[in-house]
Write a structure and sequence with these properties.
The complex is a heterodimer of chains A (317) and B (232). With 317 residues, chain A is mostly helical. In chain A, 61% of the residues lie in helices and 0% in strands. Chain B is built from eleven helices and two strands; from the N terminus they run ααααααααββααα. Classes of the chains: A mainly alpha (317), B mainly alpha (232). At the A-B interface, α5 of A face α9 and α11 of B.
């Protein structure tokens, strides 16, 4: 090994050498841009408390990632923006009235346990923001319950209404209200129309894989349609299920994280489909009103298995 | 090997759950409070010391082909004894530990120490080994249980230790908390190993432990090698 130090090095970097110009930083910027309508909608619906939660979460995520990279003796790479996007996505799933320490704790857990403990960007087996969310949700069910935290509002929680008052009561909520984000939910997860806009843009531009998003929404809508056809009195329509909970946030922004998703079209589609079907199964048979984050965490864990679905090599048996 | 050395190796060098990574089932399952960890550890010390003693006594009589079955029978008899003792004298603890008391029979540490140590060594050394391993196991479980109880419930051995405004981190006393805690402790142990190796000057070994450089020769091209070269 000491001899190699003086030898001539012919190749200093790994291929590919021809770069299309797409960087992690630009990817994060585009994702942030696609989230901007939902941020504005959240500000419009929830006011300054939403801004407080989002700013705090992003700031803590970026600071913690920089500290972790310093402690690990690595180059500080927070300017790639992935930590900021993770922080924003985490904030989107919290209620706007979340106390400051809850936001900080979630951000620290998300970055430390969800990302840096596994080796940083791209090495995490499950979505970074969802790790933070899951630890908070399991630890503080009451503080994470938007319906219990947000008392001074005339909005209703559509999924709780569906769970406890039946499909007829849930269908009374006008669909436009759901799209405009007039629903009790995580502060950004409920901005269905804005997320649909931003997410479709990302999928169309190829920043997120449309296979995954399509599979996810087909999984939710397909199973919701099947339930609704089997028993229309007890089950809400597929459109209701698509526009509530974190389905749109999850389908466009969380499950599509390339670090946790399979990398070929068919596995990507199946991965989304499984995630979507799990959402409906948790909503219908589980104890939680919205199972989207848990469904996505489970689908993330399945991704390595789905990646084994490869085409047969030519001439292979 | 002296008896003392056999005793002390279980306390740090071969600490059962954190260094040998054995006996994880009770480590993960019953450590939601410090007192549970301590109780489980005490039961394991009892079984481990006696099973090591009995097995090293009869090690020349047992035919090699059926030794595992014999070890299990010996461990099972001792576990039944400990179970009955707990029912008689520590019933609340017995109720809290539940199924994990009978499951001591299949605890890797019991069979592992029987197979790896007691079946090859004399009675005194085996008892010392069992005592050391058992104490190490108890310490580890109590430590893990303390962390989980303090963070997840705000108490330590049932006494409130956190300020009034503390919101307990409930996940720590539930199943995922055990995995998170154990993973962080194992990471911490690896970091300690790495630091110690580096202090002893075994640079190459330390790097290999940290990054798996062992099989790769391209040190100059790799960031770790360059950093190493700068340091020298």
């Amino acid at each position: 090994m000491p001899d190699a130090r003086n030898a001539v090095l012919l190749a200093m970097s790994a291929p590919p050498y021809w770069h299309c110009g797409r960087t992690v930083q630009r990817q994060s910027l585009w994702i942030a841009a696609a989230l901007a309508p939902a941020v504005l909608c959240a500000l419009w619906n929830w006011g300054l408390p939403a801004l407080r939660v989002m700013a705090l979460s992003v700031a803590v995520c970026v600071a913690v990632e920089a500290l972790c990279q310093k402690a690990m003796g690595r180059e500080i790479a927070v300017d790639d923006g992935t930590a900021a996007v993770s922080g924003l996505l985490l904030a989107f799933m919290l209620p706007a009235a979340a106390p400051w320490w809850l936001v900080c704790l979630g951000a620290v857990v998300a970055i430390c346990l969800g990302k840096m403990a596994f080796g940083g960007l791209g090495a995490n087996p499950v979505n970074t923001s969802l790790v933070g969310w899951a630890v908070l949700f399991v630890s503080f069910p009451l503080l994470m319950d938007a319906n219990a935290m947000q008392l001074d509002t005339e909005f209703v929680d559509p999924l709780l209404r569906l769970k406890f008052f039946g499909a007829a009561a849930a269908e009374e909520i006008p669909f436009t209200d759901l799209l405009l984000g007039h629903q009790i939910n995580g502060l950004g997860a409920g901005q269905a129309g804005a997320l649909l806009l931003g997410g479709s843009f990302l999928a169309a531009r190829g920043f997120v894989r449309w296979h995954i998003a399509l599979g996810f929404f087909l999984g939710v809508a397909g199973l919701a349609t099947a339930f609704a056809l089997a028993d229309p009195a007890a089950n809400a329509s597929p459109f209701f299920h698509l526009a509530t909970g974190s389905v749109l946030l999850g389908g466009f922004f969380l499950i599509t994280d390339p670090a946790n998703a399979p990398s070929r079209p068919l596995p990507m589609f199946l991965y989304g489909l499984i995630g979507g079907a799990l959402v409906m199964l948790i909503r219908k048979y589980g104890v939680y009103a919205d199972g989207t984050p848990f469904a996505i965490l489970l689908a993330n864990l399945l991704a390595p298995q789905l990646d084994l679905l490869r085409p047969k090599p030519f001439g292979g048996r | 090997m002296s008896v003392l050395k056999e005793f002390t190796k279980g306390l740090w060098k071969e600490l059962p759950p954190f260094r040998l990574v054995l006996g994880l089932c009770p480590t993960l399952a019953v450590t939601n409070s410090a007192s549970n960890g301590l109780g489980m550890g005490a039961a394991v010390i009892f079984v481990l010391v006696l099973s090591n003693m009995i097995i090293s006594m009869v090690r020349h009589i047992i035919p090699a082909k059926v030794r595992i079955a014999c070890f299990i029978v010996i461990a099972a008899s001792l576990v039944v004894a400990v179970e009955l003792l707990m029912q008689a004298y520590a019933y609340p603890l017995y109720e809290r530990l539940g199924i994990f008391v009978p499951l001591i029979v299949v605890n890797c540490i019991i069979l592992g120490r029987a197979e790896a140590f007691a079946a090859k060594n004399g009675v005194a050394a085996s008892v010392a080994d069992g005592l050391g391993m058992g104490l190490g196991f108890t310490m580890s479980l109590t430590f893990l249980g303390s962390i989980r109880e303090v963070l997840g419930n705000g108490t330590w051995f049932g006494m409130a230790v956190m300020p009034e405004s503390f919101e307990p981190l409930r996940i720590m006393v539930q199943a995922p908390g055990a995995f998170i805690c154990l993973g962080l402790i194992l990471a911490g142990m690896n970091m300690l190993n790495f630091r110690q190796a580096r202090r002893r000057g075994e640079q190459a070994e330390a790097l290999a432990q940290q990054q798996g450089c062992g099989s790769c020769g391209g040190c100059t091209a790799c960031g770790a090698g360059a950093r190493d070269a700068q340091a020298q």
